[in-house]
Write a structure and sequence with these properties.
- The complex is a heterodimer of chains A (297) and B (364).
- Chain A is an all-alpha fold.
- Chain A is built from 11 helices and 2 strands; from the N terminus they run ααααββααααααα.
- A two-stranded antiparallel ribbon of chain A has the order 1-2.
- In chain A, a hairpin with a 2-residue loop joins strand 1 and strand 2.
- The longest helix of chain B is centred in the C-terminal third of the chain and has 27 residues.
- Chains A and B meet through helix 4, helix 9 and helix 11 of A and helix 7, helix 11, helix 12 and helix 14 of B.
């Protein structure tokens, strides 16, 4: 039974990271209807920035995390400014293809740095001995990661509910024309959405990097694992992303814990989300909490 | 129709039937025929090294795959980020039979044209399955569906012992009328085989776009509601498009398997899907000859990147291979730049050059 609870705990940990990764993705989709295929690269860059700041520049980690979040904030904003601003008004399909190209470009840039080929790991700041109660254990890194995630998601929810900028972002996602007519600058909101996505991606990257180590392939994979999460939660729902993130984390942990080794299977945790994605697309395409008015073909 | 059947300085169509002709003038037809004859004849006079023959064959196979991708992304307006997986389905159809029957079974070595068609059919089957969400959803979701198919495909190959867990599965040498195709003639032989497939499928698609299905594809892309109102079934049309793209990808996959005489997962990863997409975009989406320009341009770029990184490695000796970094960077940059500044691709330059020549010495 304690095995079961152990899986539940690690499922929730992984799931909250998915939720944080999915958050930035949903932000961009909500405001501009663009699927950001390059999200995993943003996560990876965030993680590498935190590492570079802490280990190479020797900034303490509690300063390095906000600093790298600020850096990715401006990086994502300038990405939007350079590549995507001039595509406003073009068909959405070409904007999505631009993000595919962007993914390739960022891949190339990361391969130029040492991070593309060498696996680093963060120096241990927190106590190494895990907290355990009744046979179930959780490491300090995981605990702190979950706490940071909860704080950030809470902060984002407050931002959307209360602040003027957040409300104008919601207005743009609702109806661009109406938002423009009451004086909201739609391109600025798009830029802001990208910037916020970059910020949350850096936080997610730092947490993942602390838990699993800095492997480019692992970090990049999170950008693609975001798709099953957001499809399950509904593409345009922040709350859905949180719930679906945790569900997906639990599914992955249970698959890894119980399915692997049966019938000669291995690595099911990596494929089950995608199989689930195809099934959801066939039967309940708007996900758990997505807007129901999906345009039929 | 112009009075001169050889040269025309403008369009003189008086009926839709005339507008749909493949060749407008006799000169067009003559030039095209000469081009095809040249493609078939040059290996008789020149002998290229195996290295360059391999590049040329690889390009031809990419042309087949990109023609398929062009149906889905160009004509039907749906993004497919899993095209390499469909190519892989074709290759692994051959490889799967090679593992069950033995890699030099008669079916694989003697009946290879049949195997190529069979691989195409397998690709079509999987294409139709992945395209099923099209019955209900818009293109955004299809991009995600194809991406997840790519992931499922890679996992399945990696973790199944039947497919040698992604390691190379060997395929025997094929036989032809003159006996076994040996080492010396292998590349020339597959050059001709790929060229025949390219010509047949190229004419096939050119004609398909004149039929009811081809035009309904374009109608659905441009305005699906209007297409629906005119009695077409947008969802089914898209599923057919996916099946057709899968068929072309399957053909390419089987050719790939035979050309390299082995199948391994490293040729069918997400990176390759993006390369195919880059080829389609650079060539020009929604045009047939774009499917020829794109692979040629990207393969050329690839060779230049290799040269550049080899040159740079001499000047700055760095750890690791510089090409692994420069390749995705340059492909991504090419995709982004073309989408931003020339969304109609190289095919558009070709169109401009053609109309200039056609109207010369007048401007328009």
């Amino acid at each position: 039974m304690s095995y079961f609870f152990q899986l539940v705990i690690s499922g929730i940990v992984v799931g909250s990271i998915y939720a944080l990764s999915a958050l930035g993705f949903v932000l961009i989709y909500k405001s501009s209807r663009v699927l950001n295929i390059a999200h995993g690269q943003l996560i990876a860059i965030g993680a590498f920035l935190v590492y570079a700041l802490t280990v190479w520049v020797k900034v303490p980690i509690y300063l390095a995390l906000p600093a790298s979040m600020v850096l990715t904030f401006f990086m994502a904003m300038s990405v939007e400014r350079i590549f995507l601003r001039r595509l406003i008004g073009e068909p959405i399909i070409s904007v999505i293809m631009v993000t595919i190209g962007l993914m390739s470009i960022l891949d190339g840039i990361i391969y130029l740095t040492p991070f593309g080929s060498v696996n680093y790991s963060f120096p241990a700041v927190l106590p190494v001995t895990p907290i355990s109660f009744g046979g179930v254990s959780i490491s300090w890194t995981q605990l702190v990661g979950v706490i940071i995630t909860v704080i950030l998601i809470g902060g984002f929810s407050w931002f959307f509910k209360r602040s003027t900028l957040g409300i104008s972002m919601r207005a743009v996602s609702d109806d661009q024309l109406a938002a423009m007519s009451i004086g909201i600058s739609v391109p600025r909101v798009f830029g802001l959405a990208w910037a916020m996505a970059g910020l949350s991606a850096a936080a997610a990257g730092a947490i993942i990097g602390n838990i699993t180590g800095l492997n480019f392939d692992t970090l990049r994979a999170f950008g693609i694992l975001v798709f099953p999460v957001v499809i399950l939660g509904g593409l345009d729902s922040v709350f859905g992303a949180v719930v679906a993130g945790i569900i997906m984390g639990l599914i992955q942990q249970f698959a890894g814990g119980y399915l692997d080794g049966q019938w000669g299977l291995s690595g099911t945790a990596n494929v089950l989300p995608y199989i689930l994605l195809l099934i959801i697309l066939l039967f309940k395409p708007h996900g758990l909490f997505g807007t129901h008015e999906i345009e039929r073909v | 129709m112009s009075a001169n059947r050889w040269l025309a300085t403008g369009n003189f169509f008086t009926s839709y039937r005339e507008e749909q002709r493949i060749f407008f003038t006799h000169l067009d037809r003559l030039i095209f025929a000469a081009f095809i004859v040249l493609l078939f004849a040059w290996p008789l006079f020149f002998e290229l090294s195996n290295k360059y023959m391999l590049v040329i064959n690889h390009t031809l196979i990419a042309v087949v795959a990109v023609m398929g991708l062009n149906i889905v992304t160009g004509y039907a307006g749906l993004i497919s980020i899993g095209h390499a997986a469909f190519v892989g389905i074709g290759a692994y159809t051959v490889a799967g039979l090679a593992t069950t029957l033995g890699d030099s079974h008669k079916l694989i070595t003697h009946a290879w044209p049949l195997m190529i068609v069979l691989s195409g059919c397998m690709g079509a089957l999987f294409g139709a399955f992945v395209g099923l969400p099209a019955l209900r959803l818009k293109h955004l979701y299809l991009a995600i569906a194809t991406l997840s198919f790519q992931m499922i495909f890679e996992w399945t190959i990696h973790f199944m012992r039947f497919f040698n867990q992604g390691q190379t599965i060997y395929i025997g040498r094929v036989h032809w009328l003159t006996g076994e195709v040996g080492r010396s003639s292998h590349y020339v032989f597959w050059y001709y085989a790929s060229l025949v497939v390219v010509v047949i499928t190229g004419f096939g698609i050119r004609n398909l776009m004149r039929t009811r299905f081809g035009r309904s594809l374009i109608a659905v892309r441009d305005n699906d509601r209007a297409a629906d109102a005119m009695g077409m079934h947008p969802g089914l049309t898209k599923v057919y498009a996916f099946a057709l793209a899968g068929f072309m990808a399957g053909l390419a996959g089987a050719l790939h398997a035979y050309l390299y005489r082995g199948v391994g997962i490293e040729s069918f990863t997400l990176h390759h899907s993006i390369t195919y997409l880059a080829m389609a975009i650079v060539g020009g989406l929604g045009t047939l000859h774009g499917a020829f320009w794109g692979p040629v341009a990207i393969e050329f770029l690839d060779i230049q990147v290799e040269h550049l990184s080899a040159w740079a490695a001499q000047i700055f000796p760095a750890q690791g291979n510089l090409a692994t970094a420069l390749r995705p960077f340059s492909f991504g940059l090419v995709i982004v730049l073309f989408l931003m500044f020339e969304p109609r691709g190289i095919a558009n330059w070709w169109r401009i050059a053609r109309s200039y020549v056609k109207l010369w010495p007048f401007r328009y």
